[in-house]
Design a protein that fits this description.
Elements: E1 3-8, H1 29-36, E2 39-42, H2 52-61, E3 67-71, H3 74-79, H4 86-96, E4 103-109, H5 118-126, E5 134-137, H6 146-155, E6 158-164, E7 167-168, E8 179-185, H7 196-209, E9 216-220, H8 227-241
Parallel strand pairs: 1-2, 1-9, 2-3, 3-4, 4-5, 5-6, 6-8, 8-9
Antiparallel strand pairs: 6-7
Length: about 250
Amino acid sequence: MPLHVGTSGWQYSSWRGVFYPPQLAQKRWLEHYAGAFATVENNSAFYRLPARETFQSWRSRIPADFVMAVKASRFLTHVRRLREPHDPVRRLLDAATGLDGRLGPILLQLPPTLTADAQLLAESLKQFPRPARVAVEPRHESWWMEETREVLGAAGAALCWVDTGGRPQTPLWRTADWGYLRLHQGRAKPWPRYGRQALTSWIRRLGDTWPDQADVFVYFNNDPGGAAVRDAATLGSIARRSGRTVSRTWNGRP
């Protein structure tokens, strides 16, 4: 059970010539990505939930060891704002389980205007059957209270750790026996890259919190110019040298 390292999405035009060979057709990008990395966070599902058949098609195009995390539809988190969660969660799971054994965690990214409501969060998490893994990314500071931590822990849900500018934006709580980290934007050049010092610090934090045998999912969301794939490759290299078991990562060549 390694450190799973990948990116938030795979369909970025600025990656052509950096990560994707210039002549490679876009319809083959997922297969190319899955040859370089063993996990991806599908954040396109946030904007429009794909049909189950689309998830099944993705499943047929990725290897058996590949894991796809799925960002929950904004209908649940931003339109309903976690209220009346049963139907949105059911539709999400009916579609995403088309990935079968390749389905990884579900990410609930809450809107920045949604203030803390632990009961509302608890009710939403109850809609996900065990052993489904759910990570929650609150974005309003009112959520940083003990009640939030207790709700996540009771549900076996992971607090999504977040980095912006090379610094943690969330408490570094361990609320589950697995972890989830999103890196949005570094401070190194060229923008929005991460420097080695920042990445080394994150490997240390993860290692201080979870043992090597725990599943920890790390996704880079700084996609412009191929920064995400380059930083994911660097983080994987640093983690291996520190003694961590790491999933397949890019070798740095298109």
